[in-house]
Amino acid sequence: MSEKHATMSLRRRSATSPAQAMPFTNQSSKDQYYAVMTVSSDKWIWAFCLAFRVVNSLLVQTYFNPDEHWQALEVAHNITFGYGKLTWEWKKGIRSYLHPLLFALLYRVLGFLHLDTPWFMRKAPRVLQSVFASFADLYLYKLSRLIYDARVARWTLFCQLVNWFMFYCITRTLVNSLETVLTVVGLFYWSSFASSSKKHPSGSRKLALFIASLACAIRPTCAITWLYVGFVDLWQAKNRLKLIFLEVIPIGLSVLGLTSILDWWMYGSMVFVPLNFLKFNFFSAGGDYYGTHPWHWYFSQGYSVMLFTFLPFSLIGIFRSKDWRISGLIAWVLGVYSILGHKEFRFVLPVLPLSLMFSGYSLAELSDSDSKRKNTKASSRRPSRAQVAILFLVATNVPMALYMSLVHQRGSEDAIYFLSKEASDGKVKSVLFLMPCHSTPYYSSLHSNLPMRILDCSPSDNKGYLDESDRFMSNPVGFVSTMLENSSLPSHLVLFESEEKHLRDLLVSHSYKEVKRFFHAHFKVDRDLQASVVIYTST
């Protein structure tokens, strides 16, 4: 295959580099100097990104999506400590154990060091994810430098670190966060394979295929991204049959086989996760059980909100760079996900860094234009357009990132953290969560083997079926009255203020009293305003 067609969009290079400013006797010395300087620079950039993301992870103290806890940490806690609730997905075999095992290893280390305290159990998983996230930052920088130049790469890194949604989501233990990391790293190695410039270290297409296969094993829908990447290059490749039969299929089947063996061992039976996942989410539209959105939601709302004020810069960058392959990849992913009824922000997180790369391109051009206009004294006395753009992006994204990470929907995590400290002191005997299912973390954060119960919301094949969560939300008083009469009373109850105001008299009549109230949100999201999370205890 020719180097010209084997990669996704290899375009502009840096016009000036440190190596070019130095006198060299031959091209080899010049290339060696450039390689050393690049590696050294990359190490410092990674160290900075790592420090930034660790702080990022410590600042994220809010509840975003149940899967962060219920499909990763809860499973890992069950593996490591022998207790933890497995949701219906793990009974139907539509999730791979590969992702939770990363955090199971972390829990094993914490337990061995006797650091499995409430604070470490709450913070350590996100700190681990921050390490992975730092590699996404680094490789996005390297990908931007490879496709464009170091100038665009620096602006791209700025966009990646400032964007509110990336700050809000990338250090969370969602499988989509790790999928994003693997996608960016894989795209870099895929693109660098065919780099004709010796200034950049040659990547490996086989390594890219391995990373892509790993990403698909962790999250089967990642195949949407890599089908586009593979098809675009295979369409122009001369030796496509060699590529398919000697690289794609052997590497893909090897990773698929190893992860399948791992899942068979963990499940204790022959379970083929990718097929079960696709059958439920694509062929049977099982995800629609959790809500649907109109086809245009990603374009009109979801993805636009994720980009926020970076949106105009990304659009300008797309049209100015004319990099239609990468912009086509973004459009392809958004288009395919738009076909599905059930839509979530996190599903399209893996292509957000690519959009931010176009924002970096736009800002780099703006900065260059400002440099050319610095000839007059009048222009030097006022802020440049790039400076105004930086101020605008920081002023709009940083407050949003901090509010969403520190304030909005924090009550769920604060409540379980309070209970974990109370449980470690022996003050909690049992807990009942009277709220929509999966509204809080569970055993992975409580870290005490106590009887606990949540309201069930497993999907059913029966049309019109109302699960426990739905029945509770439609008639809180009647549902709880029946539950308290027919079961033993727990020592603690956890519920949202929106339901607590209806149940207050009933709970008092059963000898419960409020012991703690945590702020949760200023505005409603999916349901009525859930302003606070309230904990009641039996007297």
From TrEMBL:
Keywords: Glycosyltransferase, Transferase. Its EC number is 2.4.1.259, 2.4.1.261. It comes from the Eukaryota. This is Dolichyl-P-Man:Man(8)GlcNAc(2)-PP-dolichol alpha-1,2-mannosyltransferase protein. The keyword Glycosyltransferase applies. The keyword Transferase applies. It comes from Dioscorea alata.
